[in-house]
Amino acid sequence: MKPCVFTGSAVAIVTPFCGDGVDLEAFDRLIERQIQGGTDAIVVCGTTGEAATLSEAERASIIEFTAVYTRSRMKVIAGIGGNDTLAAANAARRAERLGADALLLTTPYYNKASSEGIIRHFAYVAEHSELPLIVYNVPGRTGVSCTPEHYARLAEIPRINGVKEASGDISLVSRTRHLCGDALNIWSGNDDQTLPMLALGASPRASVALMRLSQAYALIRGRGYVLPEDIAAVFRSAIAHRLMLRQDAKLRGVSADDVLGEILRETEVPYKGRR
Asked: For position 260, which CATH number holds?
């Protein structure tokens, strides 16, 4: 199970400019607004931050400024995208020195890398930094898309932490979750895909947590095996914080415990021999 770089929401922030280049005073205000709003992570030098048009010096100043300003109040994810593998590896080392918490790397574009080339691109960059690496799959801009099979292989690389999925293909996300399980975190890269991705269900972490809690609950009661009532007893504790209720449910006063309680009441226990 790979720990998440962050949980919750991450903002891919714009890069403000003035006549002399990057406007760090305006950037200061933008970052502070995100901190006050409770944002969990901030992505700098990404697509929204116009990374493709930034100079190396501008990228460095943005990453360093953000890392110093946030002072660990939120995670800083640095975009190091590019189709030059060696340059991306150098950018990864530089972002690490400047204080970033994680890296974001797009699929290599323009060069029409082979399937194996895509894997080696990410693997090489991951090997050249101690920071966790997030794969950024955005074929609408790069013209290249990762497949679930790519993700399955990339998930085997320890420093590749997850993927920002912006392909718009929900079936790709579903198959990736099936193939990778807990070995790869998946974040939605498109606002209009967030709800469908959540609708795929609780992450495999939920099932693992439920299994372990059930085993511990049974052991406390002197049993080396789990009964359905053990699962029911810990079900809310394992799942409740993972649910995201719709606004209309919240307005009706419905809680996550209410939803899970109804699931427990309506789920028939599959005892052996039941017809």
From this structure: 1.10.8.80
**What is the CATH classification number for the domain harbouring 85?**
3.20.20.70
Considering the entire predicted model, what is its pTM?
Answer: 0.75
Give me the catalytic one of 75, 136, 151, 217.
136
HEC per residue, 143-178:
CCCCCHHHHHHHCCCCCEEEEEECCCCHHHHHHHHH
Amino acid in position 216: A
Name the active-site residue from 2, 109, 151, 164.
Answer: 164
Residue 75 catalytic?
no
Judge whether 272 counts as a catalytic residue.
no
> Residue 199: is its pLDDT beyond 70?
no
Q: Are 149 and 233 in a shared domain?
A: no
**Domain count within the chain:** 2
pLDDT at 26 over 90: yes
Q: Is the pLDDT of residue 130 over 60?
A: yes
Last residue of a domain, one of 143, 175, 198: 198
